[in-house]
Specification:
Helix content: 40-55%
Largest sheet: 4 strands, antiparallel
Structural class: alpha+beta
Radius of gyration: 19 Å
Oligomer: single chain
Order of helices and strands: EHHEEEEEEHH
Strand content: 15-25%
Strand order of the largest sheet: 1-2-3-4
Length: about 170
């Protein structure tokens, strides 16, 4: 297996930048331009802080590339880290629904290896399925424990980890 450089799509990042900037402006402008009571100011300040954090998170995602290799997954960027597949001890695949009937949403993968930090990626990342497949292979090889929800989410992607199948 060759290594692959993976990034979040520009279209996704630009949409996130637009949302974050709009939120910062809409929450920050009244604080600067109007005399608002303290309760409204507290509410606007909380919104401003959330949108500012979202803006920082988007900038970090923009500057980070992920290198999927046969032995590692590397997050190369400002908050970079490395997961060694042969030392994988944490794998969590979560699904976040945006509709009540769970027909739409996104997935987030968290992986970590002994002594290292977690790498979290979501399904907007190009090559997400490839990372999940490689992580599942590593979990199978290392015997990393998987939660029921993670196993169900892996199955929904067509991935089964031997030894982690659902009991009959």
């Amino acid at each position: 297996m060759n290594s692959a450089d993976l990034r979040y799509p520009q279209q996704t990042l630009m949409a996130d930048y637009l949302r974050a900037t709009a939120g910062v402006v809409l929450c920050g402008a009244p604080l600067l331009l109007l005399d608002v009571n303290r309760w409204l100011a507290a509410f606007l300040l909380a919104g401003f802080a959330l949108f500012a954090l979202f803006l920082v998170r988007t900038a970090l995602r923009h500057r980070t590339r992920f290198v999927l290799g046969p032995d590692t997954l590397c997050a190369d960027g400002p908050a970079g880290t490395l997961v060694e597949w042969n030392r994988l001890d944490r794998l969590k695949l979560s699904y976040f629904s945006t509709k009540r009937d769970r027909s739409d949403g996104w997935m987030q993968l968290s992986v970590g290896s002994t002594g290292g930090r977690l790498i979290k990626v979501d399904s907007a990342l190009e090559g997400f399925h490839d990372i999940v497949e490689r992580a599942a292979q590593a979990a199978e090889a290392t015997g990393a424990p998987l939660s029921d929800a993670t196993r169900a989410n892996l199955r929904s992607m067509g991935i089964v980890v031997v030894g982690q199948e659902e009991p009959v």
